[in-house]
Amino acid sequence: MNLLTPAFGLLLWTLLAFLIVFFILKKFAWPAIIKGLKDRQQSIADSLATAEKIKIEMAQMTNEHEALLARAREERAQLLKEARETKEKIINESKEQAKIEANKIVIEAQAAINTQKMAALTEVKNQVGKLVIEVSEKVLRRELGNKEAQETYIKGLVEEVKLN
Amino acid sequence: MLIFHFPFSPFLEVFHLCPLIFAPNFRNGMISGPVKCLLVAAFSLFSTFIFAQDGQQKEPKKLFDANEVIFGHIMDAHEFHFFSYKGNDGEEHHATIPLPVILYSPRRGFSMFMSSEFHHGKHNYSGYSLLTSEKIVEWKLNPKKYNIGQVVAVKENGEIDAAVKVYDVSLTRNVVQMIIALSLLVWIMLAIAKRYNKGEGVASAPKGVQNLFEPVITFVRDDVAKPNLGNKYEKYLPYLLTIFFFILINNLVGLIPGTANVTGNIAFTMLLALISFIVIMFSSNKHFWKHIFWPPVPHGVKPIFIPVEILGIFTKPFALMIRLFANMLAGHIIILSLVSLIFILGAANKIVGYAVSPFSIAFVVFIYFIEILVAFLQAYIFAMLTAVFIGQAYESEHHEEKMHI
Question: Which residues contact A81 (CB under 8 A, 6 or more apart)?
Answer without folding.
Answer: none
